[in-house]
Prior knowledge:
This protein is α/β, with parallel strands linked by helices. The protein folds into two domains: 3-109, ATPase, nucleotide binding domain (Nucleotidyltransferase, domain 5, 2-Layer Sandwich); 119-282, Exopolyphosphatase. Domain 2 (Nucleotidyltransferase, domain 5). Helix content is 44%, strand content 21%. The chain is built from 13 helices and eleven strands. The strands form two sheets. A six-stranded mixed β-sheet has the order 8-7-6-9-11-10, with helices on both faces.
Amino acid sequence: xxxxxxxxxxxxxxxxxxxxxxxxxxxxxxxxxxxxxxxxxxxxxxxxxxxxxxxxxxxxxxxxxxxxxxxxxxxxxxxxxxxxxxxxxxxxxxxxxxxxxxxxxxxxxxxxxxxxxxxxxxxxxxxxxxxxxxxxxxxxxxxxxxxxxxxxxxxxxxxxxxxxxxxxxxxxxxxxxxxxxxxxxxxxxxxxxxxxxxxxxxxxxxxxxxxxxxxxxxxxxxxxxxxxxxxxxxxxxxxxxxxxxxxxxxxxxxxxxxxxxxxxxxxxxxxxxxxxxxxxxxxxxxxxxxxxxxxxx
Length: 297
């Protein structure tokens, strides 16, 4: 019988239904919908009303898929935006109703990091001591087998704080870059790591853009690499584009267009701080980590 994970993130709501056999995740269905739940959170302190409606509608659709597959175990996790918003508790009550009484877990940044590490590291068995960087909408996690750090900056949060315009003005981009740099200053180095893995929608979207894919292809994205040079180029190009032009990038989900520049700036700041030139991109992430833990119950 399959197990499932639901991730209620700052920018996306996601579902993985899978069979886990001998510690290997065999995907049945995987879905991701941009809801922009945390849009404007930095200014209002509250989850977006439109984002909440989109999230609840998406979760109702996910419930149908869970019922269809007769999923035996489900874990729903809520992350950065739900942790920080004043109306987060009320929203999570609505989530429980949308999912037929299933109660979501409001997890810490550290647990989020651990789950992402479990999921991502399984996709790169050749790395014995990887560092996983998980860029979300509201936070970024740096995690190894023995440590985890969560920083409250992500693609949505940085966009809200420093990138109000498209095209973006030079001083706005410079300010956003400095803000991300300052926030990552306390992240410890990983001198003995033998590989770096980027997980979640910012990294996978940037990898598709860097690869000039004619459409998003998760098989080509997984295992690809992104360099600091590519990120510098993407930041330069994205900053000079209108929102409408960004939406026309063929491999990019149009709903990610408002925050992809912010995500690229966070990504470059992370690699620059760690003094690494490239990172491997993973399609396996927190969702995979959740279902692996569920299968052990």
